[in-house]
């Protein structure tokens, strides 16, 4: 088996390369490449490990013909074109927890620095001045901290602030009442947070919804004397408005670790009174750099070697421990999706994935993605679990999931139903023996059949002599039958025949089979 090949294109702790090698990957470490140099070599690699310097643009990804996974050592993935990666079936991962404590601590440090004007006081003292009377700070004890974003980092900041005896009021559209109680914070809307807070700190990703979340209009609504801290992403705060309000004295101080444009070499904020900044140091501690490098190497190795998916941004996560358990279910799901995709006619506006029994106790998202991977092969040969949902969404296909924990006739069952112009069409499968996928129902007809290799699907009238006729036809044309599976609605009614054969059946033989007495449909299948 060929070893997966990984490129580390940014400066990273050397232990990351060691982990890739120890886990069984070949690794090249080439930091500092130009985009042209990266584009020239990226087609050789299965994995790309990056930090913030490498830009995985669409142009680069178009040349990444073998790439399966991009791992970002850190949280922000602004430097990765995720839609382009998804369209090409490339998993994009980050490491959201490796530098959480470091970033949270930096936010607290920046809050303390802006509260006591430490940078300017330090600078003037070292110049030989003694400007004690010039610096009148404020205590944080008893003050209200407004938290915008209460995820992993935000929750750590809240905990540290509570240790400083601050009250914390938080806005996050995903924050539940139960989680707010658990964190010990007051859940509020954004307007409440910005009008009540003495300090506001941001801990949210940069998206279309969060861009300029602290706009000029919102900054003007803040309490006079508020102090703003942003150690999350540049672009969350209107920097021009921030400068104006600092100069007017409405905002008492601001501390930024991130800017809308980086590197920030000539920001208009530079030199503004009561403004302090650092050059994107939120994750810059020895511990954090080691943690994220090791974490990204472990995650990427898991995916390339076992199929485990952790902290992915464009595909459901699937731990290395879960992957072996889910693997047979996903194999069954993909075959069912492929079957219904090959047999259904016309557009498929809706698809339903139903899991029952043992399958219902598992994470259904990877199963659904596997169904879509099989189904979307009718549209594209280069489809996998990553880009299949993207392709389905692109075609306007509505996807629903149903979970039934009770067992039916089978201990586990996956049923795939598609809406067609002729009505709903459904196929179902189960796992037999040691996890072997088997078809158990096709369009309402019970049948037990393998789904493997080249097959022939026939719908016919249940009449004596038909099996002999189809067997003779195939034999006369040199086609050997591997397995033979039968099902019917009722005696003398509509019957289904599934044959596995040793080679793809030529079109002229399909035509001869279609012309046989009692035949309604003949279709060649491939799995």
TrEMBL record:
EC number in record: 1.1.1.95
EC class name: oxidoreductase
Signal peptide: none
Domain of life: Bacteria
Reactions the enzyme catalyzes: (2R)-3-phosphoglycerate + NAD(+) = 3-phosphooxypyruvate + NADH + H(+); (R)-2-hydroxyglutarate + NAD(+) = 2-oxoglutarate + NADH + H(+)
Pathway(s) it belongs to: Amino-acid biosynthesis; L-serine biosynthesis; L-serine from 3-phospho-D-glycerate: step 1/3
Sample GO molecular function, one term: phosphoglycerate dehydrogenase activity
Sequence ranges assigned to domain ACT in this UniProt record: 455-527
Alphabetical UniProt keywords: Amino-acid biosynthesis, NAD, Oxidoreductase, Serine biosynthesis
Alphabetical GO biological process terms: L-serine biosynthetic process
Database matches in Pfam families: 2-Hacid_dh (PF00389), 2-Hacid_dh_C (PF02826), ACT (PF01842), PGDH_inter (PF19304)
Function: Catalyzes the reversible oxidation of 3-phospho-D-glycerate to 3-phosphonooxypyruvate, the first step of the phosphorylated L-serine biosynthesis pathway. Also catalyzes the reversible oxidation of 2-hydroxyglutarate to 2-oxoglutarate.
NCBIfam families per record: PGDH (TIGR01327)
Family designation: Belongs to the D-isomer specific 2-hydroxyacid dehydrogenase family.
PANTHER family according to UniProt: FORMATE DEHYDROGENASE 1, HYDROXYPYRUVATE REDUCTASE
Protein name: D-3-phosphoglycerate dehydrogenase
Organism listed in the record: Altericroceibacterium spongiae
